[in-house]
């Protein structure tokens, strides 16, 4: 591992995130953006009422519902590209596995506020969340397709529990709201072509505004129990796998799924 990757690894372990500015070329970004926009328009048409009233993200981008096989292959090639895999293997060096993709955008309702959260809070009670922070590793690899306000993160919260202020705001209790400001929050603006890497379990929130459209790939450590979260339709078939320069994150999740079926 070269010195730059070592530094990024150390930064992630200490802070729970890092940003690489201008990581992707205009050409790489244009190809990705074109495919994502085709997905986004088809998804909005299918979920119009939801989109107009409350949506701020979509998922299963690599599935077959809205994209054809060639478009899906474009995404698989991007996700498993040398640039992406170098960072994925830096942050998750022990058997990283593909989990999902998500797309984050501005809600149509201007009054809709963003909110502080840890991803694990949607699956666990407070005790479970404390355990998840200690034992699991799920990471977002975010590529903004346009310049945007970015994210607000609480550095270091991926390995520690909430302060009283953070917990009250995140849970919207004691006259607090989950959209309130946090004294520990740090804003991280993003531009098209940047790569933001952050822990799913750290305290964070997206910042709405501008032409926000961010493509996230979620990767987990194979030691974690997340196989049931992965949709088979979102994985590449054998023909697609053969066309990837590095299929290891997909090979890993496919192997984990096979193991689960034999248990």
UniProtKB/TrEMBL annotation:
What are the entry keywords?
Dioxygenase, Oxidoreductase
- From the record, what ranges are coiled-coil? none
User: Which top-level group of life is the source organism from?
Assistant: Bacteria
Entry's InterPro entries? Fungal_Metabolite_Diox (IPR051961), Phytyl_CoA_dOase-like (IPR008775)
Which protein is depicted?
Phytanoyl-CoA dioxygenase family protein
Q: GO MF terms on file?
A: dioxygenase activity
- Give a yes or no for keyword Oxidoreductase in this entry: yes
Pfam families, from UniProt?
PhyH
